[in-house]
Every structure is written in C-alpha cells, then in structure tokens.
Write a structure and sequence with these properties.
This protein is mostly helical. The protein is about 75% helix and about 0% strand.
C-alpha cells in the first residue's frame, strides 16, 4: 500500500510540473473551495427582489441580477456546488459499478465476460443525453436523479478500461504467483490487479468529471435537469438566453465558468494521459534494454 501511495504522490508531483495542468488544477481547486464555502456569500441565491430584476453589474451586485432580482454571482457560486456534486456522485456510481464489472469480465472470461460485455455494448449504443432524459422522466426531476442518470452513462467506460487492464495483467508473473500461493480470485482481483490498474482508471475519473458537468448542464439547459430554484449553470444559461438583448451579462458568467471548468478537467486528463504514456514508454524501453 505504501508503494502504491508513493507512486501516486510521485505522479501528482509530475503533474504539477506540467504548466497547463498546474493552471487547470489551481482553477479547479479555487472552484472547489468556492463551492464548499458558498454559504459565506453575502447574498442569498434564492432571495427574490423584483424591483432589482435584470439590473446590470454594480457595486452591490458585481455581475448583475436575473429576471427575479436574484444575485447572479451568488447563483453561479452555488451552481458550482451543484455541478461538482453531480460530477462526484456520477463518478462514484460509474466507478463502483463499472470497475467490478471490468474486473470480473477480464479475470474470469468465458460466459461472464460475454454477458457483461454485451450489457456494456447495449449501454454504449444508447445516446447518453437521451438515456439520461428518459431516466429522469422515470425518477423525477431532482439532483439525485441527475446524479444517477449521469452516473449510469459512465459505467461502460470504466468497465471497458478495467477489463482491458485486467486482461493485460492476468497472465503476468506476479498475478500467477499469487494464485500459486493460494490467493483467492477476490484477493487477486482487488488486491493484486486493481492496485496496478489505477493509472487509466484515474484518467477516466477526470474525463468523466468533465463529461458529467457538461451533461448535467445540458440536461438543465433542456429543462429536465436539476429543478429550479436550485442554482445550476445550465439552468442559468437556459434562462439567460431569453434576455440576451436586454441583459447580455446574464449568461456570460455561468457560461464562462462552465467552459473553464470543463476545459480544466480536460487539460488535466490530457496531461495525465501524456505522463502515463511517457512512463509506459520508459518502462518498455527499459525492459527491452535489460533483455
């Protein structure tokens, strides 16, 4: 366990040295802190004051107010909590289901692999946003329903990545040695193979975070996501498009923050994939040189 944690720390140290990833990581850390301490905002995102509706940026309201007189900045800050909570919940659901599916499929093979992979193929043929909309129609419009819907759409990617890693490691000497010494299938899967498969799974966690935030915003923009008055970046864009001529600032801030958040997750994911690819090439060249 100490070896694995040491590898993870070394990996994140290398990630911080990547300029683009370091900037993206700093921005996401800022957004995360803003979401955590959103309650310290001086304005209530739910407080309506119709006499202040669609007021432009001012000293009292830095980014203006919406059609109900609510402070846009306060709603964007609380919207960060909505988006990050949805992303975190979706990743937990997708990983909790997809990773064991991939482990079982790749480790045992045979009929288990056939059944699980056919299920994954069926899930991948369904358009993510249409599937999410259908599921929300069944579960009802709420943040919990959005988390479940987005999380289910991410299961296939985790299952396929984990299966590929399991197939690669299944015949390695250290896995065979554990079996020879009487290690159970569960021990081999979760204590031997899984700790050595964390790299691509971690990359997929970051990638799914950006996809989950985008999908949650898209659902809210279409009117089937998180129900008002809960602040959501997608819902704010949906409302703001009706006032582009009267109040163009309305949609600027939520759109900008949404874009930067998605781009930051994407930048970190690309940097992680690049670092992992270089590390794999170094290991491969080293093993070939030793041979």
């Amino acid at each position: 366990m100490s070896v694995a944690s040491g590898r993870i720390r070394a990996f994140f140290r290398a990630l911080r040295r990547h300029k683009g990833a370091a900037a993206a990581l700093a921005f996401l850390l800022f957004i995360g802190l803003v979401a955590i301490f959103a309650d310290l905002m001086p304005f209530d995102p739910f407080r309506q004051r119709l006499v202040d509706s669609l007021k432009g940026p001012s000293r009292a309201h830095w980014f203006g107010t919406d059609e109900l007189g609510r402070d846009i900045l306060a709603r964007v800050v609380y919207g960060a909590r909505t988006s990050l909570t949805t992303a975190a919940g979706a990743v937990i659901i997708a990983a909790a289901v997809g990773v064991p599916m991939g482990l079982i499929s790749g480790f045992f093979g045979g009929w288990r692999d056939a059944i699980l992979m056919r299920l994954v193929d069926v899930m991948m043929t369904l358009p993510a946003i249409l599937f999410a909309m259908a599921l929300i129609a069944i579960l009802g419009r709420s943040q919990s329903a959005a988390i479940v819907a987005v999380g289910i759409t991410g299961i296939p990617s985790f299952a396929r990545i984990t299966r590929a890693q399991t197939l690669t490691l299944r015949s390695r000497d250290f896995v065979v040695a554990v079996e020879a010494f009487g290690g159970s299938a569960r021990y081999n899967m979760f204590r031997t193979i899984l700790p050595n498969s964390w790299s691509p799974i971690l990359v997929q966690v970051v990638v799914l975070c950006s996809v989950a935030i985008l999908l949650e915003a898209a659902l809210a923009f279409l009117g089937v996501g998180v129900a008002p008055p809960t602040p959501s970046w997608g819902e704010m864009l949906r409302s703001g498009k009706s006032y582009l001529h009267e109040a163009p600032y309305y949609a600027v801030l939520p759109g900008l923050i949404l874009t930067l958040t998605i781009l930051s997750f994407d930048a970190i994911g690309r940097a992680m994939a690049d670092l992992l690819g270089k590390r794999y090439e170094l290991r491969k060249s080293g093993s070939e040189g030793a041979a």
